[in-house]
Amino acid sequence: MNGGLLDGLRIVVTGANRGLGAALVADARKAGAQVVGTYRVEPPAGPSEVHWVRMDLGVDDAVERGFAEAAERLGGIDAVVANAGVSYNSLLAAADMRDVESSLLVNVGGYVRTLKYAVPHLRSADGGSVVAVSSVMAGGGMPGAGVYSGTKAAIEAITRTAAAELARFGVRVNAVAPGFFDTGMGRAVMDDTRMFERYSSRIPMRRFGSADELSSAVQFLLSPMSTYVTGAVLGVDGGVRL
Ligand SMILES: NC(=O)c1ccc[n+]([C@@H]2O[C@H](COP(=O)([O-])OP(=O)(O)OC[C@H]3O[C@@H](n4cnc5c(N)ncnc54)[C@H](OP(=O)(O)O)[C@@H]3O)[C@@H](O)[C@H]2O)c1
Fold this sequence. Notes:
CATH class: Alpha Beta
Bound molecules: NADP nicotinamide-adenine-dinucleotide phosphate
CATH topology: Rossmann fold
Number of helices: 7
Largest sheet: 7 strands, parallel
Number of domains: 1
Helix content: 40-55%
Strand order of the largest sheet: 3-2-1-4-5-6-7
């Protein structure tokens, strides 16, 4: 990892109790940041150098309170990784509307709440940055992933709008669009040999990504290495979108 790349930064990562979010907080710590990870139900067990704050991204008050608590714990917030997300697999003809509502509530509403309640803290810290976790699925077209794809396309559109609205306050807003990873949601695909072979044969680099490869891309966008980058969506996908 990039030791020291995030030195001195105070970062909040949402949905950090498991999956890619857990790796993002651990790697951000190693790169020198002070980190708050958010959880919805239970914080991870065991000792940790990470501060834990409860936040359900679907509940307005909880997000407002969560960012206020995170700012208090860290003495301010310089950057946020909007990582939390849900995914339901279903053909559109069979869509369960509760899953559709939940996807919109968490993936789209949760991102808007994150921007709404985190940005005042970034502005009072004199700028800063937000990195949203989208997906290569934002492009659409994969049977069964229609609603998930729609929420990720919304995240990318909101990212570009937020970048335009917030540039004058010194706040940069970018997104990463992961392809298939060996952690979190991608793990179930990897564990199914037939699905794994089908998916990896479509990836030009012929393998799934590892969590630290996503961390590196996120850290670039959080760090002083990208001070003139805003409104960008960085594909981290082994070329699968090509
Ligand atoms: N893994 C991949 O291959 C892949 C590929 C492309 C994009 N992504 C994106 O990467 C991000 C992380 O995914 P992952 O693979 O690590 O998935 P994951 O293992 O399912 O983790 C999702 C995280 O989001 C949290 N979350 C869900 N609903 C929430 C809510 N209402 N409020 C607060 N937190 C909530 C979960 O908390 P709980 O434990 O409480 O449910 C969990 O911490 C997601 O945005 C996903 O769409 C992943």
